Amino acid sequence: MDRGKMKRLEKAGWTVGTVAQFVDLTKVEEALVGIKAALAEELRRTRMRGRLTQAELAKRMGSSQSRVAKMEAGHPSVSLDLLVHGLLVAGATRRDIASVIGKASLPTA
Questions:
Q1: Which residues of 11-42 are buried (b: 16+ CB within 10 A; e: fewer)?
Q2: What is the pLDDT of residues 18-70, one digit of tens each?
């Protein structure tokens, strides 16, 4: 958010902060959320690069299309290992996955 807008909101009595502050996440929780979101987005990109539908990827994984949709949306019920499994099945390499995790938006000290 630009500084001018932030100042106007604060002047009007609003509290401005991050989502992590709003829901009171620890730095570790915030890091996990960032990694999960990055992996979910990469799953969608990898699937699309491979010209796979969600149903096709689901079949290869032994899962359902709705589960793949939840994976790509970063649904809370989706585990990190399921995201990694989906990425590998979709054609990502371990190096690709490591790169995504390394570039994920992580909290600062």
A1: eeeeeeeeebeeeebeeeebbebbbbebbbeb
A2: 767 777 888 888 889 889 999 999 999 999 999 999 999 999 999 999 999 99
Domain ranges of the chain: 26-103
The CA distance from 69 to 58, in Å, is: 9
> C-alpha angle with apex 34: 108 to 61, nearest 5 degrees?
155
Q: Are 37 and 78 in contact (CB under 8 A)?
A: no
Give pTM, 2 decimals. Answer: 0.79
CATH architecture of 26-103: Orthogonal Bundle (1.10)
